[in-house]
Amino acid sequence: MRQKLVRVIGGVALASALVAGAAGCSSSGDGGGSASGDKCGLKIAFFGALTGDAANLGINIKNGAKLAIEEYNAKHADCKVELLEKDSQGDEKQAAGLAREIVKDKKTIGVVGPAFSGETEASGPIWEEAKLPIISPSATRTSLNTKGWKTFHRGLGNDDSQGPAAAAYIKDVMKAQKVYVIDDQTAYGAGLADNVKTALGATKVGEDKVERNVTKDFNPVITKIKSTGADAVFYGGYYQEAGLLVKQMRAAGVTAKLVAADGVKDPGYVEGAGTAAAEGSVLTCPCAPASEAKGNFAANYKTKWGQEAGTYSDIAYDVAGIFLKGIEEGNTTKDKMQSFITGVTFEGVANTYKFTDKGELDPQFLKIWAYTVAGGEIKADQPIKTP
Questions:
Q1: Cβ–Cβ under 8 Å, residues 84 and 44
Q2: 25 falls in which pLDDT band (50, 70, 90)?
Q3: Which 3 state secondary structure label does DSSP give 319?
Q4: Distance between CA 107 and CA 372 in Å, rounded?
Q5: Which of 207, 215, 274, 290 is deepest in the core (most CB within 10 A)?
Q6: CB of 23 within 8 A of CB of 79?
Q7: Is 20 a residue whose pLDDT tops 80?
Q8: Are 379 and 371 in contact (CB under 8 A)?
Q9: Which burial class, exposed, middle or buried, applies to 41 when counting CB atoms under 10 A from its CB (0-12, 13-18, 19+)?
Q10: What pLDDT does 387 receive?
Q11: Preceding omega of 286 cis (within 30 degrees of 0)
Q12: How far apart, in whole angstroms, are the C-alpha atoms of residue 130 and residue 24?
């Protein structure tokens, strides 16, 4: 910046004039300890698994966010926003280190993610200390809202809504009489299973735990399932182990229907289980079918990525859209972005977003759906009312 003498009628005054083009991409103070005060060159981070056994879900989310940013940049070619991609491999042990890398980047003004509950819990104190707002499109563990983190938000219902809804579907739609509940001991799986067990009440006839990325032989658990005569099994965990579980159940002659939630709602489940074993499985999700998203989202996603939008692709698109709207309206510091998110009502392609004082999606906008596996594909069944 340079200074000019500015003559004013009746006297002479010194003023500082900003020499800049219409894009205004020069740096200025951040007013909140964050990125540049300008709209140009800012970054939105993606935080989730891009490799490893949970990569499918992370890639869905990243691709949704990236599509939103690329569409924004096409309209703002002189003042673009960058997507900073951080691959957590779905491993909460890596979360804190990756979060520290992100907060060191002063251009980063918000985070789409973290994708999973465990990594959100592990990295939460770092976002809070740095005052960097996050919006997870997929982490559902209820207790994430009990930490007092002002920077925490999520764009979907938590397990206090999904768990009871899954239990209601099991009892009211499936008419199951005996349900065996299993979880993988992760922050997500255990929390979800606890909600389901509470809502099932006396319908739950047994429970067990396995270990994510460790348990491969489910026969000891399957023996217990057989002994209870369960006609349904609820699994709290992710698609890899769920596929192995149901495959081994069918091989052992157990016909109980497998019910799981959003962590299993992925084509990787059917692939791991095999089409025949996966047939008839019920999967819940605090998300409507991406095919029902407003506008041209579904078509644009398929054109861009060569495949249908996956679980949480549309919500991630909206979450990125919230940050982009904030930037467009001049919220170019972390503090301003935080204030913007706190007060925003955002009309997205998947939903309307408004956050409570705990960072939760306003209850009036909650969506819970049941999906079923039929003919090797995961198909929308029906919305479920939260009990």
A1: yes
A2: very low
A3: helix
A4: 43
A5: 290
A6: yes
A7: no
A8: yes
A9: middle
A10: 67
A11: no
A12: 26
Q: How far apart are CA 191 and CA 206, in angstroms?
A: 17
pLDDT tens-digit series, residues 269-319 = 999 999 999 999 999 999 999 999 999 999 999 999 999 999 999 999 999
54 pLDDT above the threshold of 90: no
Orientation angle between helical segments 187-200 and 159-168, nearest 10 degrees: 50
Please give the Cα distance from 157 to 304 (Å, whole number). Answer: 28
Where would I find the H helices in the chain? Answer: 55-75, 92-104, 117-130, 159-168, 187-200, 219-228, 239-251, 267-273, 275-278, 297-305, 313-328, 334-343
Tell me the residue type at 203.
Answer: T
Question: Taking the CB of residue 130, how many other CB atoms lie within 10 A of it?
Answer: 18
**Cβ atoms within 10 Å, residue 215:** 18
Distance CA 198, CA 216 (A): 27
How many C-beta atoms surround the C-beta of residue 379 within 10 A? 10
Q: Which residue has the tokens 């891009």?
A: 50
Instruction: DSSP for 331-358, please give it.
Output: --SHHHHHHHHHH--EE-SS-EE-B-TT
The pLDDT assigned to 386 comes to 73
Q: What is the pLDDT of residue 71?
A: 98
Segment among 32-46, 85-99, 143-157, 269-283 with least mean pLDDT: 32-46
The DSSP secondary-structure symbol of 259 reads E
CA dist 218 and 381 (Å) reads: 28
Using the structure block, give the residue that is written with the tokens 């770092």. Answer: 126
pLDDT at 331 over 80: yes
The residue whose two tokens read 């940050």 is: 323
Q: How far apart are CA 211 and CA 24, in angstroms?
A: 52
Amino acid at 332: T
* pLDDT at residue 53, rounded to an integer: 85
Q: Residues for the chain: how many in total?
A: 387
8 A C-beta contact, residue 68 and residue 321: yes
